Amino acid sequence: MAARRRSVAIFLLLACFTCRWCSSMAGSGSSEQEADRDRVGRLPGQPASPGVSQFAGYVAVNEQHGRALFYWFFEAQATPSSKKPLLLWLNGGPGCSSIGYGAASELGPLRVVRQGAALEFNQYGWNKEANLLFLESPVGVGFSYTNTSSDLTNLNDDFVAEDAYSFLVNWFKRFPQYKDNEFYISGESYAGHYVPQLADLVYERNKDKKASTYINLKGFIVGNPITNDYYDSKGLAEFAWSHAVISDQVYERIKKVCNFKNSNWTEDCNSAMNIIFSQYHEIDIYNIYAPKCLLDHTSASSADRTFFANDPEQFRTRIRMFSGYDPCYSSYAEDYFNKDEVQETFHAKASGQLPGKWQVCSDQILNSYNFSVLSVLPIYSKLIKAGLRVWLYSGDADGRVPVIGSRYCVEALGLPIKTDWQSWYLDKQVAGRFVEYHGMTMVTVRGAGHLVPLNKPAEGLLLINTFLRGEQLPSRR
Ligand SMILES: *[C@@H]1O[C@H](CO)[C@@H](O)[C@H](O)[C@H]1NC(C)=O
Ligand SMILES: *[C@@H]1O[C@H](CO)[C@@H](O)[C@H](O)[C@H]1NC(C)=O
Ligand SMILES: *[C@@H]1O[C@H](CO)[C@@H](O)[C@H](O)[C@H]1NC(C)=O
User: pTM score, two decimals?
Assistant: First the structure.
């Protein structure tokens, strides 16, 4: 397992949470004060307008060990925001930050610009129709920390879900005015584990409907999600072959030596699969038709250095090939969130516990994480039966968690089809395809990679708003 995981040591990005903050008068004086202390006026480099109502800070999740998770929260832009749902977003990794990816690079209303010089307003921010909550999870990721260092080597899916659940319970104490809002959980990549697992934990703990910790969970949505080890691995190999990344011979060899039903890959399988990963080192595995970031200082791309890295002219030339898309977004987040004045305004100095720089992804967490769960499909079956709204979307140009594997996963649930596979549209163009089952919806986003809201912002916003309203995607031009 370890050998295999190392060979796949390419970061999975994931999860962020969104939610909104309503202005009802509920809540004790102390929670209002706590919430008030978390209010962020204006961050360094933030545009003067439009105004953004935001909060950031720590929520303790375990007093004995001294664990605290960091969040960034945006009220819905639409008024009245108090009736809008609360959406939590989680990035994956394990070890990647929902603030660095989800909030600052993908779907937040404020995104970091080049070189981390400032923030820009994102007109496709997912807080248009939802109150949006980003959580850095688990401890060891981003600003989230623990005072008990042994926690960092005990991380697995159960640990992550328990802490995220404690976070929610305590966050709602601080922001009680959101307790009655519809609550949804979202995320991408390895959050394909976190999201359904957290939904399951909330569902189980909700069985006491009168408990003060009741959470008004209505559903979840995941993007390019790690879901089932067997189907995802099979899909990764098939996608690489069907998208001309590897030769017929390599693909034949993989089919011969790899039994993906065994999660512990053999040496032969490891070396065959490493041919795929070495090909993907040349391009961006997360978005196979996009340019690759050739800056060498982001933690997310540390595994992907190339000899172009120190050649700015090469870099600029390559960048220009695809105007409008900047592949180096995650390094800009590291530039921005390591500024003292940013951390000050952001209430991220409170810990003093950070071992070093704020990183968009933590190698330490990735390498020590105990991958003990191989499939979350049983949770899908359970929560679909329980009536939660469940959507899975997939950018169809992602080589890391490819659409092929996700299709196998959804098909394996054996749900009856409600509406056949068909196109959905934005601005008279095919934005992707979708299929509705009795119990869940699967959506593809045409030409998007692993980070759908980054690659296809308008499509991403339409998708999330349609999900939140419980509607069907536009099936006419
Ligand atoms: C961690 O330790 C520091 C220093 O003792 C303390 O100020 C902080 O409150 C602790 N964090 C938690 C979550 O208990
Ligand atoms: C995985 O396979 C390797 C050899 O390919 C073996 O040494 C190792 O013990 C196996 N690990 C598990 C957990 O089965
Ligand atoms: C990983 O987690 C599983 C399940 O929780 C546990 O049985 C196993 O001992 C853990 N392995 C390590 C190395 O901590």
Answer: 0.89
